[in-house]
TrEMBL record:
One of its GO terms (biological process) is DNA recombination. It comes from Streptomyces davaonensis (strain DSM 101723 / JCM 4913 / KCC S-0913 / 768). Coiled coil: none annotated. The keyword Cell division does not apply. Residues 254-345 are annotated as: Disordered. This is Non-homologous end joining protein Ku.
Length: 345
């Protein structure tokens, strides 16, 4: 850290206490940058700066700042103009408040810096501010000017140093309007339970174990081509099926997370799935024999009932015939009696 070049020198204003400090970058980028080249011969492609009025290339020393007005007019602004601005934060990180850390919206977080004590006289007030932040469990909100504009910052303790996070102004953070789904969705308790199980299975991770695999792959490609070798080819990822059932996806995710950690498959309760036909229950041999016996008894009983019914039907038919015969005889007998009563002349 001692060899890192400071990007800003000034002081922290803590009430009437002034702490001389140097601001250094707390982060660095490891991204691989590429140059633009002419694909036919590998020549570098460069951008040259031309003046539109004189139509000639200009040097960096001839370039200044200008503000374009609404009508297209350019208003020149010099470094001297900006240096004369009545900003108390031009060379001072002015602490304006102390607030709980969780009151800061992470969306406001910007670049991070370390604040290093500048010289031996700054050691005592620097340590005082650091220990006060530790004991209060709060962060300091400050205003400072950097690269031509006033900014908002948050001071907190990192190890034995004071770090400052640049913050976006509240009006620079967009409201999340139109981002969330605009349809009504019902999340069931069982789905939440499985989501909780997945979160517990994944658990925590040591950020030190994470690394940029893409950058490493690019470095391998560059090294292979520089050595005249064939660049390594990554296997194509397996195509995943379309997930239509959220519960099934959650269950599979929990099992996969468990297996990746070498643990037993997670015990999850599956929801009953609809089937088009009911599957007949399998029965044992004894139950099958009992059913056959019962069927035989039922058949025998049915046969007896049929025989009895037939006999009853025959008896009824005979009775019917007797009744019909009796009625016929009765009708014939009065007819004969009537004939014998005729008078003689």
């Amino acid at each position: 850290m001692l060899h890192v070049r400071s990007i800003w020198n000034g002081a922290i204003s803590f009430g009437l206490v002034s702490i001389p400090i140097k601001v250094v970058n707390a982060t660095e980028s490891h991204s691989i940058s590429f140059r633009q080249i002419h694909t036919e011969d590998g020549g570098r492609i460069r951008y040259r700066k031309f003046c539109e009025l004189e139509d000639r290339e200009v040097t960096q020393s001839e370039i200044g700042k200008g503000y374009e007005d609404a009508d297209g007019t350019i208003v020149p602004i010099t470094d001297e103009d900006l240096a004369q601005l009545p900003l108390p934060t031009a060379k001072t990180i002015e602490i304006v408040a102390f607030v709980p850390a969780d009151s800061i919206d992470p969306l406001q977080m910007d670049a991070a810096y370390y604040l290093a004590a500048s010289g031996a006289p700054a050691a005592k007030p620097y340590t005082l501010l650091r220990e006060a932040l530790k004991r209060s469990n709060k962060v300091a909100i400050a205003k400072f000017a950097l690269r031509g504009r006033e900014r908002l910052g948050m001071l907190r303790v990192v190890g034995e140093a004071i770090a400052m996070h640049g913050l976006l102004w509240p009006d620079e953070v967009r409201a999340p309007e139109g981002v969330a789904p605009d349809v009504d969705v019902t999340v069931r308790d069982k789905e939440l339970d499985l989501a909780d199980a997945l979160m517990d299975t994944l658990g925590e991770v040591d950020l030190e174990d994470l690394h940029d695999e893409y950058r490493e792959a690019v470095e391998e490609v560059i090294a292979a081509k520089a050595a005249g070798e064939t660049p390594p080819v990554s296997p194509e990822p397996a195509e995943g099926g379309k997930v239509l059932d959220l519960m099934a996806a959650l269950e599979k995710s929990v099992r996969a997370a468990k297996e990746s950690r070498g643990e037993e498959p997670a015990e999850v309760t599956e929801l009953p799935r609809k089937t088009s036909r009911a599957t007949p229950k399998q029965t044992t041999g004894k139950k099958s024999t009992a059913k056959k016996t019962a069927a035989k008894k039922t058949t025998a009983s049915a046969k007896k009932s049929t025989g009895t019914a037939k006999k009853a039907a025959s008896s009824k038919s005979a009775t019917s015939k007797s009744a019909s015969s009796a009625k016929s005889t009765a009708k014939k007998t009065p007819a004969k009696k009537t004939t014998s009563r005729k008078r003689t002349a």
